[in-house]
Amino acid sequence: MSGARRLAITWAVTTAQVIAATVAATVAAAQSPKPIGLITGGTVLLEAKSVTRDAGIITAALRVQFHKPTKVPGGNWYSSRTLLMLDCRKQVVAVKENWYYSDAKGTKVAQHKEVGIPGYATPLPGSMPKVALDHLCQAR
User: Fold this and answer.
1) Residue 139, C-beta contacts closer than 8 angstroms, at least 6 positions apart
2) I need a labelling partner for 32 at 20 to 30 A (CA). Which of 46, 50, 51, 70 fits?
3) Tens digits of per-residue pLDDT, 40-98?
């Protein structure tokens, strides 16, 4: 194999590796939760890949990364994840599911609750649902 051919193959392989690494980093960044606001005691993060819109209702998963672990019977909670439905026209939200995590990485589920019949309500100022409503409804 000639030196020029070997150089061309090396360049092609290196270029392909750089492109693959760039694509992987871009996909990971697009899928990682994005900070959209603060509440007392935590940062609200939106899982952008979870956002869907159907008949005027937005469904989205949000995480709250607690600034300090929350002490509960049986241990600590480090973060939460909530699946919400938002009605921008009426300015109301409904919680479908909640998860609380007992590790800093947010992988060990300490508690999971699924709401049988979600009910819409006006979110409290300064709450995670209010941050979600303000962010997702103005983003349209």
Assistant:
1) none
2) 70
3) 999 999 999 999 999 999 999 999 999 999 999 989 999 999 999 999 999 999 999 99
Question: Taking Cα atoms as reference points, which of 57, 55, 63, 45 lies closest to residue 135?
Answer: 45
* Separation between Cα atoms, residue 41 and residue 54, nearest integer Å: 32
What digits encode the pLDDT tens for the residues 20-35? 444 444 334 345 899 9
Residue 65: which domain range? 33-138
The span from the CA of 78 to the CA of 107, in Å, is: 10
- Claim to verify: residue 25 and residue 38 sit in the same structural domain: no
Residues 2 and 42 in one domain: no
Both 107 and 52 in one domain: the answer is yes
